[in-house]
Fold this protein.
Amino acid sequence: MKCLAICQDELVIRMLDEVLLSSFEIEFLVESRPVGRRLHDAGINVSVADPRRTDTYLKADVSPSTCLIVEDNGRRSLKRILSAIRDAGGTLIYVLGVGTAAHPGRADELRAQFPDISYLAMAELFGGPLLTEFSRSLTRARVQQYQRYFSDADRILILLHNDPDPDAIASGLALRTVLRRTKTTTILGAMQGVTRPENLRMLNLLDIHVEPVTAASLGEFTRVAMVDVQPHYFGGLIDRVDLVIDHHPEQPGYSAVFKDIRPDYGSTSTILTEHLRAVDVNISERTATAMLYAIKSDTLFFNRQANRVDLDAFSYLYPLANATLIRKMEGAEITFERLEFVEKAHRSSRLQDQVFCAFLGASPRDDFIPYVADFFLQLENVQWAIIAGVVGDTMVISVRNLGYSRNAGDFVRRYFADLGSAGGHRSMAKAIVPLTAFQNKFGRLHGAEVSEKLQELALQFLHEHAAAEKKKEPARA
Ligand SMILES: [Mn+2]
């Protein structure tokens, strides 16, 4: 492809020449004779002409398929140059902003007059890779510090939260890799072990061991690290650790020798991918598989709180991981035990105005409840799924919706925040309230009465919103 670059700055020309020469037939057009001569002597394909004249481009044989790059250093003559190019039949025009960051409206101003141009700011083009490089060196320095600090420890504990999820497990595995340790000297531990079937399947398929630990046994370890969780989670049992790596908002009230907390990341495994990359450690297939699965599951396959860095980590890990194993781990969501709860929900369910409600009664674990909610949200006629169940002496309510109606988090906060914990996002939310508080507010409801009550609340919540929207309409017209 032929490429004509209209530039005046020598540095810009030399750089473009270096970047583009391998893939384009590139020629430069400059105004100044001395600059032209110097560049010519340096072996660059350059000619000297007046860039504001149409015949300059006619002579250069510009066609609609010629790629034209015009340097914009803020001077006024740029518009005349662009007009001349257009008059000569040039259409594929890129304007390269050099030092024009001080004029933020520049691109829009040009586009108003020349709608077809693409505006590229030099700072943006080079900034990305440069910043990535710099932040990688910062991460490298950080990681090397804690690697040294852990290097002489006899026994290390990597502590995970209760009932560890894939992100916690994968992050533990990844940290062990960063520390260049094996399971004989560095264990993954949890105060309450894994219970969910898909997470147990992950441990089995990847041969990962999570050991039970107690507050008393922490003293047996020379160093303690925490991943995907912070010490406050353990309710005062632990107030000092050596390292914390987490993507939940930072909590006060503990001390850590090292910490890396990035709440804008979709998973802790994303942070650890950056640690591993920064120090160039070899990532085994097993670890990459666990981490990839963790990123997928913590971001609900990029449906929640994922950002650029999560996608970067995902594409970095993807070729290193075992896709077949991940498919198997995902399939593990379905178990006969869970299907029983799906059936139970089906029998006691109510569906009205695309709101599906069901009460599961007593449930041995709380994961059945969100599972059932997710399951019924897949049905064509369901836009909201609200599932309740009783675990021990608490009522757990899971809410899912398709994401384009009202906010699920607002729903649970509105009706249940006064009773216990209630919160969530636009499309998924959860309330956990003491059963007695629920009964005091809504009465001693049994079986289908609970689904009925939930349905009533949901429809009230949705209809008052619809009514408010309707009211707004005449005003708009
Ligand atoms: Mn996580």
Q: What stands out?
A: The mean pLDDT is 90.
